[in-house]
C-alpha cells in the first residue's frame, strides 16, 4: 500500500465532490474550507498514471464567516499529502479572489464551490489562479479500513525507497 501520493492530478472522485458540495451547503452562509488529498490512480484500478482526489481534510479550529475561512496553519498535520484546497464562495462567484490567490501556493488544484452547491456550481484552478480542467471520476473509494491498514514496515518502505 502506498502512503504518499505523487503525479499529475487526473480528477476528483464523484463521491468526494458530492461530499464537499454537501458540506459547503451545510456551512452556508459561511465559507467552507478544506484540503484536497489524493490516491494513486493504480490503487483505484485506473489504467492511467497520476493521482485522483479522494479525500477532503477539514482542519480543526478552522474559522469561517460569510466573507472568508481561515485555517490555523499550526494545526495542519505534517505529511497531510495535500494536492490542493477546496473552499466555498457563499455569494456564488466561481473565480478566485486576491485573497484566494495568496493561498494557492501549495498544491496543484484549487476548487471553488458556490451557492446553491449543486453539481454544476464549482470550478477548478491551478496554483496561479488560472482555470483548469478537472474530470469528475466515477471510482470506488478505498474504505476507511483500507486507509488505516498499514504498519511501520509500510512506512519504512515508503521512506527508504
UniProtKB/TrEMBL annotation:
GO terms for biological process: proteolysis. Gene3D superfamilies: Cytidine Deaminase, domain 2 (3.40.140.10). This is Mov34/MPN/PAD-1 family protein. SUPFAM superfamilies: JAB1/MPN domain (SSF102712). It holds the Pfam family Prok-JAB. PROSITE patterns: MPN. One of its GO terms (molecular function) is metallopeptidase activity. InterPro entries: JAB_dom_prok (IPR028090), MPN (IPR037518). Residues 10-131 form the MPN domain. Keywords: Hydrolase, Metal-binding, Metalloprotease, Protease, Zinc. CDD domains: MPN_archaeal.
